[in-house]
Amino acid sequence: MKTRKYIKKTIRNNAGQLNDMLQFNDSTNFLKRKAFSKLLSERLFIKEEGAVWILDIDDFKNINDIYGHRFGDLVIKTIAGRINEKFESDKFVARLSGDEFVVALINKSHENNTKKEIEKIVEKINLPMNIEGKTVYISVSVGVSLFPANSVDAEELIMFSEMAMYEAKKLGKNQIAYFNSKMNDYMKLHIEIDEILKISEKENIFTMVYQPIVNAVTKKIVSFEALIRMKDRKYSPMEFISIAETNGAIQTLGRWITEEVIKQIAVWNRQVGEILPVAINFSCMQMLDKGYLTFFEETLRKYKVSPTQVIIEITESVFMDVRFNGVNFINEFKKLGVIVALDDFGTGYSSLIYLTNINFDKVKLDRLFIQKLIDDKSIKVLSGIIHMLHSIDVCVVAEGVEDEIQSRTLLSCGCDELQGYYFGKPLEPEHILSFAEPSSI
Ligand code: C2E
Ligand code: CA
Ligand code: CA
Fold this sequence. Notes:
about 45% helix; eight-stranded mixed beta barrel; TIM Barrel; about 450 residues; binds calcium ion; alpha/beta; about 20% strand; Alpha-Beta Plaits; binds ligand C2E
Protein backbone atom coordinates (compact mmCIF):
# COMPACT_ATOMS: atom_id res chain seq x y z
CA MET A 1 0.00 0.00 0.00
CA LYS A 2 2.81 2.26 1.00
CA THR A 3 4.60 1.51 -2.27
CA ARG A 4 1.57 2.54 -4.24
CA LYS A 5 1.21 5.81 -2.41
CA TYR A 6 4.88 6.44 -2.90
CA ILE A 7 4.78 5.77 -6.61
CA LYS A 8 1.76 7.98 -7.07
CA LYS A 9 3.53 10.76 -5.28
CA THR A 10 6.59 10.35 -7.45
CA ILE A 11 4.64 10.28 -10.65
CA ARG A 12 2.71 13.39 -9.73
CA ASN A 13 5.86 15.19 -8.69
CA ASN A 14 7.51 14.23 -11.93
CA ALA A 15 4.67 15.16 -14.16
CA GLY A 16 4.13 18.37 -12.27
CA GLN A 17 0.53 17.40 -11.83
CA LEU A 18 -0.93 18.69 -8.65
CA ASN A 19 -3.53 17.39 -6.33
CA ASP A 20 -6.25 19.49 -7.86
CA MET A 21 -6.33 16.86 -10.57
CA LEU A 22 -7.68 14.45 -8.00
CA GLN A 23 -10.84 16.41 -7.48
CA PHE A 24 -12.46 15.18 -10.64
CA ASN A 25 -16.06 15.38 -11.45
CA ASP A 26 -16.88 11.81 -12.14
CA SER A 27 -18.91 11.67 -15.26
CA THR A 28 -17.39 8.44 -16.47
CA ASN A 29 -19.55 6.08 -14.43
CA PHE A 30 -16.61 3.80 -13.85
CA LEU A 31 -16.15 1.85 -10.67
CA LYS A 32 -14.58 3.41 -7.62
CA ARG A 33 -11.13 2.10 -6.84
CA LYS A 34 -12.28 0.05 -3.83
CA ALA A 35 -15.05 -1.62 -5.78
CA PHE A 36 -12.59 -2.38 -8.58
CA SER A 37 -10.17 -4.05 -6.20
CA LYS A 38 -12.98 -6.11 -4.62
CA LEU A 39 -14.27 -7.26 -7.97
CA LEU A 40 -10.77 -8.15 -9.11
CA SER A 41 -10.19 -10.17 -5.93
CA GLU A 42 -13.35 -12.14 -6.63
CA ARG A 43 -12.21 -12.93 -10.17
CA LEU A 44 -8.78 -13.93 -8.94
CA PHE A 45 -10.36 -16.15 -6.32
CA ILE A 46 -12.11 -18.18 -9.00
CA LYS A 47 -8.77 -18.48 -10.81
CA GLU A 48 -9.52 -16.33 -13.78
CA GLU A 49 -6.71 -15.13 -16.00
CA GLY A 50 -5.97 -11.82 -17.64
CA ALA A 51 -4.29 -8.47 -17.17
CA VAL A 52 -4.56 -5.34 -15.08
CA TRP A 53 -3.51 -2.22 -16.89
CA ILE A 54 -3.25 1.34 -15.85
CA LEU A 55 -3.32 4.06 -18.41
CA ASP A 56 -2.36 7.63 -17.78
CA ILE A 57 -2.83 10.42 -20.32
CA ASP A 58 0.51 11.97 -21.29
CA ASP A 59 0.92 15.66 -20.49
CA PHE A 60 -2.74 16.05 -19.68
CA LYS A 61 -1.86 19.15 -17.71
CA ASN A 62 -0.97 20.85 -21.01
CA ILE A 63 -4.47 20.21 -22.37
CA ASN A 64 -5.97 21.83 -19.28
CA ASP A 65 -3.52 24.72 -19.44
CA ILE A 66 -4.07 25.39 -23.13
CA TYR A 67 -7.79 24.74 -23.56
CA GLY A 68 -9.10 25.05 -20.01
CA HIS A 69 -10.51 22.55 -17.53
CA ARG A 70 -13.93 22.25 -19.16
CA PHE A 71 -12.31 21.15 -22.40
CA GLY A 72 -10.00 18.84 -20.44
CA ASP A 73 -13.08 17.17 -18.97
CA LEU A 74 -14.41 16.56 -22.48
CA VAL A 75 -11.13 14.92 -23.43
CA ILE A 76 -11.40 12.64 -20.40
CA LYS A 77 -14.98 11.81 -21.34
CA THR A 78 -13.93 10.90 -24.89
CA ILE A 79 -11.18 8.65 -23.61
CA ALA A 80 -13.54 7.08 -21.10
CA GLY A 81 -15.93 6.42 -23.99
CA ARG A 82 -13.17 4.67 -25.92
CA ILE A 83 -12.26 2.53 -22.94
CA ASN A 84 -15.91 1.72 -22.50
CA GLU A 85 -16.29 0.30 -26.01
CA LYS A 86 -16.82 -3.40 -26.27
CA PHE A 87 -13.62 -5.44 -26.02
CA GLU A 88 -13.12 -9.03 -27.13
CA SER A 89 -12.52 -9.91 -23.49
CA ASP A 90 -14.65 -9.30 -20.47
CA LYS A 91 -13.51 -6.17 -18.62
CA PHE A 92 -14.22 -3.69 -15.84
CA VAL A 93 -12.76 -0.24 -15.30
CA ALA A 94 -12.12 2.25 -12.49
CA ARG A 95 -10.96 5.83 -12.61
CA LEU A 96 -8.00 6.26 -10.29
CA SER A 97 -7.50 9.98 -10.60
CA GLY A 98 -8.15 12.85 -12.99
CA ASP A 99 -6.32 11.36 -15.94
CA GLU A 100 -5.63 7.81 -14.84
CA PHE A 101 -7.70 4.68 -15.38
CA VAL A 102 -7.28 1.06 -14.39
CA VAL A 103 -8.72 -1.74 -16.48
CA ALA A 104 -9.04 -5.42 -15.64
CA LEU A 105 -9.17 -7.62 -18.68
CA ILE A 106 -10.34 -11.18 -18.21
CA ASN A 107 -8.86 -13.30 -20.94
CA LYS A 108 -8.24 -17.02 -20.67
CA SER A 109 -6.35 -17.30 -23.93
CA HIS A 110 -2.56 -17.10 -24.20
CA GLU A 111 -0.71 -14.13 -22.65
CA ASN A 112 0.32 -13.00 -26.10
CA ASN A 113 -3.29 -12.61 -27.13
CA THR A 114 -3.98 -10.51 -24.06
CA LYS A 115 -1.04 -8.29 -24.95
CA LYS A 116 -2.21 -7.98 -28.54
CA GLU A 117 -5.68 -7.00 -27.42
CA ILE A 118 -4.32 -4.32 -25.10
CA GLU A 119 -2.17 -2.94 -27.92
CA LYS A 120 -5.19 -2.77 -30.21
CA ILE A 121 -7.30 -0.93 -27.63
CA VAL A 122 -4.51 1.52 -26.80
CA GLU A 123 -4.11 2.26 -30.49
CA LYS A 124 -7.80 3.19 -30.60
CA ILE A 125 -7.56 5.33 -27.48
CA ASN A 126 -4.68 7.24 -29.04
CA LEU A 127 -6.59 8.18 -32.19
CA PRO A 128 -6.99 11.95 -32.69
CA MET A 129 -10.25 13.26 -31.28
CA ASN A 130 -12.53 15.95 -32.52
CA ILE A 131 -13.95 18.09 -29.75
CA GLU A 132 -15.89 21.27 -30.36
CA GLY A 133 -14.33 21.66 -33.79
CA LYS A 134 -10.77 21.20 -32.52
CA THR A 135 -8.65 18.18 -33.32
CA VAL A 136 -6.80 16.98 -30.25
CA TYR A 137 -3.89 14.55 -30.32
CA ILE A 138 -3.26 12.64 -27.15
CA SER A 139 -1.18 9.68 -26.15
CA VAL A 140 -1.28 7.45 -23.12
CA SER A 141 1.35 5.65 -21.09
CA VAL A 142 0.26 2.17 -20.10
CA GLY A 143 1.57 -0.23 -17.47
CA VAL A 144 0.44 -3.84 -17.53
CA SER A 145 0.67 -6.70 -15.06
CA LEU A 146 -0.62 -10.17 -15.81
CA PHE A 147 -2.45 -12.61 -13.59
CA PRO A 148 -1.69 -15.18 -12.46
CA ALA A 149 1.85 -14.78 -13.90
CA ASN A 150 2.82 -11.67 -11.90
CA SER A 151 0.56 -12.00 -8.89
CA VAL A 152 -2.84 -13.25 -7.72
CA ASP A 153 -3.37 -10.38 -5.31
CA ALA A 154 -5.54 -7.52 -6.52
CA GLU A 155 -3.74 -4.72 -4.70
CA GLU A 156 -0.37 -6.04 -5.74
CA LEU A 157 -1.45 -6.24 -9.37
CA ILE A 158 -2.62 -2.63 -9.31
CA MET A 159 0.67 -1.62 -7.73
CA PHE A 160 2.69 -3.58 -10.30
CA SER A 161 0.77 -2.00 -13.16
CA GLU A 162 1.47 1.40 -11.74
CA MET A 163 5.18 0.61 -11.53
CA ALA A 164 5.10 -0.48 -15.16
CA MET A 165 3.19 2.67 -16.12
CA TYR A 166 5.84 4.74 -14.36
CA GLU A 167 8.44 2.89 -16.43
CA ALA A 168 6.50 3.70 -19.63
CA LYS A 169 6.60 7.40 -18.66
CA LYS A 170 10.28 7.18 -17.95
CA LEU A 171 10.93 5.58 -21.33
CA GLY A 172 9.49 8.63 -23.03
CA LYS A 173 5.69 8.17 -22.67
CA ASN A 174 3.28 7.01 -25.37
CA GLN A 175 4.02 3.34 -24.82
CA ILE A 176 3.05 0.14 -23.09
CA ALA A 177 5.36 -1.31 -20.45
CA TYR A 178 4.93 -4.75 -18.92
CA PHE A 179 5.73 -5.35 -15.29
CA ASN A 180 8.83 -7.38 -14.47
CA SER A 181 10.33 -8.29 -11.11
CA LYS A 182 13.28 -5.93 -11.61
CA MET A 183 10.86 -3.04 -11.29
CA ASN A 184 9.83 -4.38 -7.93
CA ASP A 185 13.43 -4.69 -6.73
CA TYR A 186 14.01 -1.12 -7.83
CA MET A 187 10.96 0.06 -5.94
CA LYS A 188 12.05 -1.75 -2.79
CA LEU A 189 15.37 0.01 -3.00
CA HIS A 190 13.57 3.26 -3.63
CA ILE A 191 11.47 2.85 -0.50
CA GLU A 192 14.43 1.92 1.67
CA ILE A 193 16.42 4.95 0.52
CA ASP A 194 13.33 7.08 0.96
CA GLU A 195 13.17 6.03 4.62
CA ILE A 196 16.88 6.68 5.11
CA LEU A 197 16.54 10.17 3.69
CA LYS A 198 13.80 10.99 6.19
CA ILE A 199 16.14 10.54 9.15
CA SER A 200 16.90 14.01 10.42
CA GLU A 201 20.29 13.34 12.07
CA LYS A 202 22.16 13.38 8.78
CA GLU A 203 25.57 13.14 10.48
CA ASN A 204 24.73 9.63 11.71
CA ILE A 205 24.23 8.43 8.17
CA PHE A 206 26.22 10.57 5.80
CA THR A 207 29.74 11.88 5.61
CA MET A 208 31.64 14.01 3.12
CA VAL A 209 34.81 12.95 1.33
CA TYR A 210 37.12 15.22 -0.63
CA GLN A 211 38.88 14.60 -3.93
CA PRO A 212 41.87 16.68 -5.02
CA ILE A 213 41.95 18.52 -8.35
CA VAL A 214 45.40 19.31 -9.72
CA ASN A 215 46.93 21.78 -12.11
CA ALA A 216 47.48 19.92 -15.39
CA VAL A 217 51.03 21.26 -15.82
CA THR A 218 52.47 21.39 -12.31
CA LYS A 219 50.30 18.57 -10.89
CA LYS A 220 49.94 20.63 -7.72
CA ILE A 221 46.58 20.54 -5.96
CA VAL A 222 44.46 23.57 -6.82
CA SER A 223 41.09 22.68 -5.24
CA PHE A 224 38.96 19.84 -3.86
CA GLU A 225 35.56 18.46 -4.70
CA ALA A 226 33.31 17.48 -1.80
CA LEU A 227 31.39 14.27 -2.46
CA ILE A 228 28.79 12.72 -0.19
CA ARG A 229 28.93 9.13 1.06
CA MET A 230 26.73 6.96 3.22
CA LYS A 231 28.81 6.04 6.25
CA ASP A 232 28.09 2.35 5.73
CA ARG A 233 28.53 2.75 1.94
CA LYS A 234 25.31 0.77 1.43
CA TYR A 235 24.14 2.94 -1.44
CA SER A 236 26.12 5.14 -3.79
CA PRO A 237 25.42 8.87 -4.17
CA MET A 238 24.23 8.14 -7.70
CA GLU A 239 21.46 6.01 -6.16
CA PHE A 240 20.38 8.14 -3.22
CA ILE A 241 20.89 11.62 -4.69
CA SER A 242 18.60 10.85 -7.61
CA ILE A 243 15.94 9.60 -5.19
CA ALA A 244 16.41 12.63 -2.94
CA GLU A 245 15.80 14.73 -6.02
CA THR A 246 12.47 13.11 -6.81
CA ASN A 247 11.02 13.24 -3.29
CA GLY A 248 12.23 16.67 -2.23
CA ALA A 249 14.67 15.36 0.41
CA ILE A 250 17.50 17.00 -1.51
CA GLN A 251 16.57 20.33 0.02
CA THR A 252 17.40 19.36 3.60
CA LEU A 253 20.23 17.10 2.49
CA GLY A 254 21.63 19.89 0.31
CA ARG A 255 21.66 22.30 3.24
CA TRP A 256 23.35 19.71 5.41
CA ILE A 257 26.03 19.17 2.73
CA THR A 258 26.57 22.93 2.40
CA GLU A 259 27.03 23.40 6.13
CA GLU A 260 29.29 20.33 6.46
CA VAL A 261 31.60 21.55 3.73
CA ILE A 262 31.74 25.16 4.93
CA LYS A 263 32.38 23.93 8.50
CA GLN A 264 35.20 21.75 7.14
CA ILE A 265 36.73 24.66 5.23
CA ALA A 266 36.75 26.62 8.50
CA VAL A 267 38.54 23.75 10.27
CA TRP A 268 41.17 23.58 7.53
CA ASN A 269 41.54 27.34 7.54
CA ARG A 270 42.39 27.17 11.23
CA GLN A 271 44.94 24.44 10.55
CA VAL A 272 46.75 25.82 7.51
CA GLY A 273 45.91 29.48 7.13
CA GLU A 274 43.68 29.50 4.09
CA ILE A 275 42.76 26.26 2.39
CA LEU A 276 42.26 25.99 -1.36
CA PRO A 277 38.70 26.31 -2.71
CA VAL A 278 36.33 23.39 -2.15
CA ALA A 279 33.59 22.48 -4.62
CA ILE A 280 30.04 21.65 -3.55
CA ASN A 281 27.74 19.82 -5.94
CA PHE A 282 24.49 21.68 -6.20
CA SER A 283 21.49 19.76 -7.46
CA CYS A 284 19.07 21.64 -9.67
CA MET A 285 16.15 20.58 -7.44
CA GLN A 286 17.74 22.60 -4.63
CA MET A 287 16.67 25.69 -6.51
CA LEU A 288 13.17 24.99 -5.24
CA ASP A 289 14.58 25.72 -1.78
CA LYS A 290 13.74 29.39 -1.80
CA GLY A 291 15.70 30.30 1.30
CA TYR A 292 18.84 28.54 0.16
CA LEU A 293 20.86 31.58 -0.89
CA THR A 294 20.22 33.33 2.43
CA PHE A 295 21.10 30.13 4.24
CA PHE A 296 24.29 29.86 2.20
CA GLU A 297 25.34 33.42 3.02
CA GLU A 298 24.52 33.01 6.71
CA THR A 299 26.50 29.79 6.88
CA LEU A 300 29.55 31.48 5.34
CA ARG A 301 29.24 34.25 7.93
CA LYS A 302 28.72 31.81 10.78
CA TYR A 303 31.95 29.95 10.00
CA LYS A 304 33.83 33.04 8.78
CA VAL A 305 34.51 31.47 5.40
CA SER A 306 35.04 33.60 2.31
CA PRO A 307 32.71 32.92 -0.66
CA THR A 308 35.81 32.75 -2.88
CA GLN A 309 36.75 29.55 -1.07
CA VAL A 310 33.64 27.84 -2.38
CA ILE A 311 33.03 26.46 -5.86
CA ILE A 312 29.47 25.59 -6.78
CA GLU A 313 29.21 22.77 -9.32
CA ILE A 314 25.98 22.68 -11.24
CA THR A 315 24.84 20.63 -14.21
CA GLU A 316 23.03 22.02 -17.20
CA SER A 317 19.77 20.47 -15.95
CA VAL A 318 19.58 23.68 -13.90
CA PHE A 319 18.48 25.41 -17.06
CA MET A 320 16.17 22.76 -18.45
CA ASP A 321 13.17 23.66 -16.37
CA VAL A 322 12.11 27.27 -16.72
CA ARG A 323 10.33 27.11 -13.35
CA PHE A 324 13.72 27.29 -11.67
CA ASN A 325 15.00 30.44 -13.34
CA GLY A 326 18.46 28.91 -13.21
CA VAL A 327 20.28 31.82 -14.82
CA ASN A 328 19.18 34.18 -12.02
CA PHE A 329 20.03 31.70 -9.34
CA ILE A 330 23.54 31.13 -10.64
CA ASN A 331 24.12 34.84 -11.13
CA GLU A 332 23.23 35.35 -7.45
CA PHE A 333 26.04 32.95 -6.56
CA LYS A 334 28.36 34.83 -8.88
CA LYS A 335 27.45 38.14 -7.26
CA LEU A 336 28.50 36.75 -3.89
CA GLY A 337 31.94 35.99 -5.31
CA VAL A 338 31.47 32.22 -5.37
CA ILE A 339 33.30 30.32 -8.13
CA VAL A 340 30.80 28.64 -10.46
CA ALA A 341 31.54 25.49 -12.46
CA LEU A 342 29.42 23.79 -15.12
CA ASP A 343 29.59 20.07 -14.31
CA ASP A 344 29.25 17.01 -16.56
CA PHE A 345 29.95 18.95 -19.73
CA GLY A 346 30.08 16.89 -22.91
CA THR A 347 27.46 14.28 -22.13
CA GLY A 348 24.02 15.87 -22.06
CA TYR A 349 22.89 18.53 -24.46
CA SER A 350 25.94 20.67 -23.70
CA SER A 351 24.12 23.61 -25.16
CA LEU A 352 26.40 26.50 -25.98
CA ILE A 353 23.62 28.92 -25.06
CA TYR A 354 24.33 28.36 -21.37
CA LEU A 355 27.92 29.37 -21.90
CA THR A 356 26.87 32.69 -23.36
CA ASN A 357 24.23 33.41 -20.71
CA ILE A 358 26.39 32.80 -17.68
CA ASN A 359 29.99 33.65 -16.97
CA PHE A 360 31.13 30.28 -15.74
CA ASP A 361 34.53 30.24 -14.13
CA LYS A 362 35.05 26.56 -14.90
CA VAL A 363 33.69 23.83 -17.10
CA LYS A 364 34.14 20.22 -16.02
CA LEU A 365 34.40 17.65 -18.79
CA ASP A 366 32.54 14.54 -17.84
CA ARG A 367 34.30 11.27 -17.07
CA LEU A 368 32.43 9.45 -19.84
CA PHE A 369 33.72 11.95 -22.35
CA ILE A 370 37.30 11.46 -21.12
CA GLN A 371 36.94 7.66 -21.40
CA LYS A 372 36.04 7.99 -25.08
CA LEU A 373 39.14 10.03 -25.78
CA ILE A 374 40.95 7.33 -27.69
CA ASP A 375 41.14 8.31 -31.32
CA ASP A 376 42.57 11.25 -33.22
CA LYS A 377 39.17 12.65 -34.07
CA SER A 378 37.89 12.88 -30.49
CA ILE A 379 41.20 14.44 -29.43
CA LYS A 380 40.78 17.10 -32.14
CA VAL A 381 37.18 17.74 -31.05
CA LEU A 382 38.29 18.15 -27.46
CA SER A 383 41.14 20.51 -28.37
CA GLY A 384 38.68 22.62 -30.32
CA ILE A 385 36.21 22.75 -27.42
CA ILE A 386 38.94 23.69 -24.96
CA HIS A 387 40.17 26.39 -27.32
CA MET A 388 36.65 27.79 -27.55
CA LEU A 389 36.24 27.74 -23.75
CA HIS A 390 39.57 29.48 -23.26
CA SER A 391 38.50 32.22 -25.64
CA ILE A 392 35.70 33.09 -23.20
CA ASP A 393 38.06 32.80 -20.20
CA VAL A 394 36.72 29.54 -18.86
CA CYS A 395 39.05 27.19 -17.01
CA VAL A 396 38.68 23.59 -18.24
CA VAL A 397 38.76 20.69 -15.77
CA ALA A 398 38.80 17.04 -16.83
CA GLU A 399 37.29 14.47 -14.47
CA GLY A 400 37.87 10.75 -14.14
CA VAL A 401 41.52 10.76 -15.13
CA GLU A 402 42.67 7.25 -14.34
CA ASP A 403 46.11 6.88 -15.94
CA GLU A 404 49.16 8.68 -17.19
CA ILE A 405 48.23 8.41 -20.85
CA GLN A 406 44.92 10.17 -20.24
CA SER A 407 46.69 12.79 -18.15
CA ARG A 408 49.18 13.50 -20.94
CA THR A 409 46.56 13.54 -23.68
CA LEU A 410 44.43 15.99 -21.72
CA LEU A 411 47.37 18.26 -21.10
CA SER A 412 48.21 18.25 -24.80
CA CYS A 413 44.60 19.16 -25.59
CA GLY A 414 45.01 22.23 -23.39
CA CYS A 415 43.14 21.12 -20.26
CA ASP A 416 43.90 23.35 -17.28
CA GLU A 417 43.06 21.09 -14.38
CA LEU A 418 42.72 17.35 -13.83
CA GLN A 419 40.78 15.23 -11.37
CA GLY A 420 40.68 11.46 -11.05
CA TYR A 421 41.88 8.35 -9.29
CA TYR A 422 45.28 8.79 -10.94
CA PHE A 423 45.87 11.87 -8.79
CA GLY A 424 43.87 10.87 -5.75
CA LYS A 425 40.65 9.18 -4.74
CA PRO A 426 38.10 11.00 -2.60
CA LEU A 427 39.42 10.98 1.01
CA GLU A 428 38.02 11.51 4.49
CA PRO A 429 38.75 15.10 5.59
CA GLU A 430 41.28 14.03 8.23
CA HIS A 431 43.42 12.42 5.52
CA ILE A 432 43.44 15.42 3.22
CA LEU A 433 46.13 17.42 4.98
CA SER A 434 48.64 14.60 5.12
CA PHE A 435 47.88 13.75 1.51
CA ALA A 436 48.19 17.30 0.30
CA GLU A 437 51.07 18.41 2.57
CA PRO A 438 49.98 21.59 4.32
CA SER A 439 52.85 23.52 2.73
CA SER A 440 51.38 23.04 -0.74
CA ILE A 441 47.91 24.17 0.21
P1 C2E B 1 30.04 14.06 -10.20
O1 C2E B 1 29.70 15.41 -9.65
O2 C2E B 1 30.33 14.00 -11.66
O3 C2E B 1 31.27 13.54 -9.36
C1 C2E B 1 32.36 12.86 -9.89
C2 C2E B 1 32.22 11.40 -9.64
O4 C2E B 1 33.28 10.71 -10.30
C3 C2E B 1 32.37 11.03 -8.15
O5 C2E B 1 31.53 9.91 -7.97
C4 C2E B 1 33.83 10.62 -8.05
O6 C2E B 1 34.09 9.78 -6.94
C5 C2E B 1 33.99 9.91 -9.37
N1 C2E B 1 35.39 9.86 -9.80
C6 C2E B 1 36.36 10.76 -9.60
N2 C2E B 1 37.50 10.38 -10.20
C7 C2E B 1 37.24 9.20 -10.81
C8 C2E B 1 38.02 8.30 -11.62
O7 C2E B 1 39.18 8.50 -11.89
N3 C2E B 1 37.38 7.20 -12.09
C9 C2E B 1 36.09 6.93 -11.82
N4 C2E B 1 35.54 5.82 -12.30
N5 C2E B 1 35.31 7.75 -11.07
C10 C2E B 1 35.89 8.89 -10.57
P2 C2E B 1 30.59 9.78 -6.72
O8 C2E B 1 31.22 10.37 -5.52
O9 C2E B 1 30.11 8.38 -6.67
O10 C2E B 1 29.38 10.73 -7.10
C11 C2E B 1 28.56 10.45 -8.17
C12 C2E B 1 27.64 11.59 -8.45
O11 C2E B 1 26.74 11.79 -7.36
C13 C2E B 1 28.37 12.91 -8.60
O12 C2E B 1 28.87 13.02 -9.91
C14 C2E B 1 27.27 13.88 -8.29
O13 C2E B 1 26.43 14.06 -9.41
C15 C2E B 1 26.49 13.16 -7.22
N6 C2E B 1 26.98 13.64 -5.90
C16 C2E B 1 28.01 13.18 -5.15
N7 C2E B 1 28.12 13.91 -4.03
C17 C2E B 1 27.16 14.86 -4.08
C18 C2E B 1 26.76 15.94 -3.21
O14 C2E B 1 27.35 16.19 -2.15
N8 C2E B 1 25.68 16.68 -3.60
C19 C2E B 1 25.03 16.45 -4.77
N9 C2E B 1 23.99 17.22 -5.10
N10 C2E B 1 25.39 15.47 -5.62
C20 C2E B 1 26.43 14.68 -5.28
CA1 CA C 1 30.74 17.32 -9.60
CA1 CA D 1 30.65 14.28 -13.81
